[in-house]
Amino acid sequence: MYSIDINLLNDRPEYGQQVVSSASYDSDDKTPLFIGLGVGGAALGLVLIGFGVMSFLNQQLVAEEENLDSELALLAPKLAEVDDLKLQERQVKEETKALATIFNQIKPWSATLQDIRDRVPPTLQVTKIQQKAATPPAQAGQPNAQAATVAALSAPTQLTITGNAISFNDVNDFVLTLRKSPFLTVAQTQLMSSERKTDQKTQVSLVQHQLETTINDVPASELLQILNAKGASGLAARIGALKQKGVMNP
């Protein structure tokens, strides 16, 4: 008998193709391992180098800080000396300014009297001038000696002028003339009384009058020419020297 062998698998395409074997891995090749170790070593080296640089810079900063601290310790006494000198300079400036203020508030009595004398009309006679210092304004707190002196000089000085005149017009002219004085306060120069009286012995009829005024607060530095003209050249020279030194404003 005859037998027929039929291989059905050979007739199917997927089984009829030749199977290609994959490439085999050689376990003896160490190249990837060396590459990985090299990269890791390089990274570790960079970290160590960075740490070393940071440590070096930190040591330099610490050394510089210690050096600065030592220099500051050496400069501390000198800085304290400079502060002390600045304090002394400020005190001297304050005292000089106070002295300049005192000079600037002074109105020489001789110059004031000379100015009043120059303004007396020929037909009027001044028989008496009384000076009365007004009470200085109260100071807040406890004032020092310089502040008290400046306050006393800044307080207005009241003058009472008594005299005789031939006529009432002479008295009025005298009041108007005094109001033009650079030493006196215009608004406070007032006629207080005037009365015609006859002397029983001489039978001379005169107008007896009394007026009041106050010395103004115009700084003496603004009256230098007038002070020189009225005989107070010494004060004018002192104020001029203070202006040249910059203690007073020119």
Automatic annotation (TrEMBL):
Alphabetical UniProt keywords: Membrane, Transmembrane, Transmembrane helix
Pfam families given in the database record: PilN (PF05137)
UniProt-listed InterPro entries: Extracell_DNA_Util/SecSys_Comp (IPR052534), PilN (IPR007813)
Source organism superkingdom: Bacteria
Positions of transmembrane segments: 33-57
Name of the protein in its database record: Fimbrial assembly protein PilN, putative
Species, as recorded: Acaryochloris marina (strain MBIC 11017)
Gene: pilN
